[in-house]
Amino acid sequence: MKPQFENILMSSMTLWFDNTLLKKGEAFSNHNSLFYPITNIYNGYYSYGAPFRNLIRDEAITGSNIISGVYLNNTFITTGQSGLVAINADQGQLYFNIDQSANTISGNYAVKDYGIYLTNENEEKILFETKFNLNPKTTENPTGLPINAQTYPAIYLKNNGGNNEPLAFGGLDSTNINVRAIVISDSMFSMDALTSIFKDVVRTYIPLVQPNEMPFNSLNGLNKKYNYDTLVSGKAGSSNSVYIKNIYVSKNVTNRGQYQDLNPDAISAFIDFELEAYRNPRV
Predict the structure, then answer these.
(1) pTM (2 decimals)?
(2) Which domain covers residue 67, as residue numbers?
(3) pLDDT at 259 over 50
C-alpha cells in the first residue's frame, strides 16, 4: 500500500522529535569502542555490534561524532569497502557480506540519550509489561547488543487518532491528529529537561518528509549523507508541515507496584501533542 498522510506524518515526527531533542538538549555523548560479532546473521550478512544502540547519523547535530565509517585493523573504511554493506546506526550494528571475525573492528560515534521509536502498543504494555535494560553510559559491556534488546531511556511515539473537520468551501478540511510520546527515563533531571524542551515547541511546525526524500535504505543504512536541517529546509509553515496546536505533559503514572517486570529505576511521563493541518483530503 502507498504511504498516506498519517504514515508520512508519523515518520516525519520521529525525525523531528529526534533532531529537536538532540539539538536543544545536547542529549548525546561521544564514545569509541570495538564492534563485536553478533551470533545471528542478519538477512544473510555478518553482523557486528557496538555496546550501544541509537547512534547519531544526523550531521545537523554539532559536536557529535557522526559514524560515517569504522576502522578495520586500524584502516578506516566506509560503506562499499572491505565488504561493509551498511551501518545501521539505530541498532548500533555493522553489516558485512564477508566474515570479519578474525579482524579488529572499531569506531568513533555519538550515542543518543534517548532512543525514539514508533509504536501501536497500549501504554500499559509498554510501561508495565516490557522489561527494559539501561543503555550503558560507558563501554563496560564487551559485547554487541542483539537486535531484539530493548534499552531505555526511550521514547515511544503513538498515533492516538483524530478527525477531519470542514473548514472552507471547495473541500478544505482541518485535519486534527493526536500523538502521544511515552517517555521512559533514568533520571528526574533528564525527564524534566526533556519535557521542558517539548512544552516550549508549542505553536511551531513539524516539517513533512516525503517517502522519496528519505535518505535511508532497506538495511536502515544511508543512501546519502543525512542532515535534517537541509532535508526540511523551507518546509516549516508551508503545506509540507503540520502545526503544533497544543502540548500537554503528564508525569502521574498509575501505581506500578503489582508489576514485576518494569525496572524500578525507570521514570515515566506522557507528552500529548495536538496537531493540525489544512488539507484537501478528497482531491
Answers:
(1) 0.90
(2) 5-279
(3) no
